[in-house]
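Field reference: sequence -> structure
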Amino acid sequence: MRWSLKARTALATAFVVALTILVLAAVTQYYVYTSLKDLLQSQQDTQVKLVAEQLDGKLQGRAIVLRRVVRQLAPMLDRAPGALAQYVTQAVSIPEAFDSVFAVWPDGDLAFSIESTELLLSYDVGPFAKRLYDMPALMIVAEGDKITLWDQEIAVFNSIPSARKRLTVLPKVSHMSLYSKQNDLTIAGALAAEFAAEQLGGSSNKKPGANA
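Structure field:
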C-alpha cells in the first residue's frame, strides 16, 4: 500500500509535533527539578547558617560564663575541692547551660567534676554490654559500693554474651575510694593488667582481689 503525499506529510507532521512535545516536557521537567533543587539547597543553607549563628552565640555565652567563673575561682584555689565544686554548682547553670563542668589541676589530677542529674540518670551501659559478643570482659565491683547497686551490676555482667568474662569483687572498697585512694586504684589496675595478660596469652601470679 502506497501512502499519498498528503498522508505522508500529515504523518511526518504528527511525528514532529509529538517529538517536540516530548522534548518540551523533558526540558520543563528538568527546569522544574533544577529550580526546586536550587530552592531546597537555598533553604538548607539558610537553616544551616541560622543554626550556626545560634551555636556561635551560645558557645560565646558559655565561654564568657566559664571565664568569669575562672576569675572568681582564682583566689579560692587553696580551698578543698568540695568547696570549689559547691561554689561552681551555684555559679553555673546545670543542665541548662552545661551538662557537666570539671576542673583539673596543673599536674593533671581531677579537682572536681559536676554532672547534671539528668545526664547521670539517663546513662545506661546495658545496651553496650550486649554488644560484647564473645569478647574478653572484666567487671570490677567495689564491695562497699552504695552508688552503683550490685544487682544492676550483676545483671549487666550476666547480659554480656561472652564466655571470656570475669566478675571480680574488691573487698573493703567503696565507689568513691576507687577515685580518691591510690591503693584501691592500684589494686583495680593490677587486676585489669592480669586479665589482659591472660587474654593475650601471658600469665601473672598476682592475686590482688577475690574472684566471684
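Note: The chain has three domains: 1-72, 77-121, 124-211.
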